[in-house]
Amino acid sequence: MDASSIALKLSQSLVIFTIYYAQIVASQATQATPTSSSDAEDEMYWRQVKAIIGGVIGFWGGVGSLGSLFLGAVLTQRYCCRKDDDKDDPEG
After folding, report:
1. Between residues 82 and 31, which one has the greater pLDDT?
2. Are 7 and 73 in contact (CB under 8 A)?
3. pLDDT above 60: residue 28
4. Listed residue (13, 24, 6) closest to 62, CA to CA
5. Total of domains in the chain
6. Which of 53, 54, 76, 91 maximizes the CB count within 10 A of its CB?
7. Are 10 and 71 in contact (CB under 8 A)?
8. Using an 8 Å Cβ cutoff, are 11 and 70 in contact?
């Protein structure tokens, strides 16, 4: 497997995970809401907390996955495409 196929598989799995997570959030949003006003306010508060935490985790997860993808590509390139340093040395 080369770096481009690994990158493609990682991006595909990230898209599938994002779609799956969106479906879970959408199904939870359609559930019945509490009837009393204090319960409704409490439910709204926790939904906002979950949304903020989900956004933060999603952002840093994306940053981490793209960083690891870049690091993997750089390390693969350095491993596979080594240049022989002794060829340019005229002393032998």
Report:
1. 82
2. yes
3. yes
4. 13
5. 1
6. 76
7. no
8. no
pLDDT at 21: 77
Both tokens of 91, joined, read 């002393």
Which structural domain range is residue 62 located in?
3-81
Q: Which two tokens stand for residue 1?
A: 């497997």
Specify the pTM. 0.45
Evaluate whether residue 88 is within a structural domain: no
Residue pair 54/17 in contact by the 8 Å Cβ criterion = no
CB 71 within 8 A of CB 6: no
Structural domain includes residue 86: no
Q: Quick check: is 10 in a domain?
A: yes
Domain annotation covers residue 87:
no
| DSSP-assigned states of every residue in the chain | --HHHHHHHHHHHHHHHHHHHHHHHHHHHTSPPPSSHHHHHHHHHHHHHHHHHHHHHHHHHHHHHHHHHHHHHHHHHHHHT---GGGS-TT-
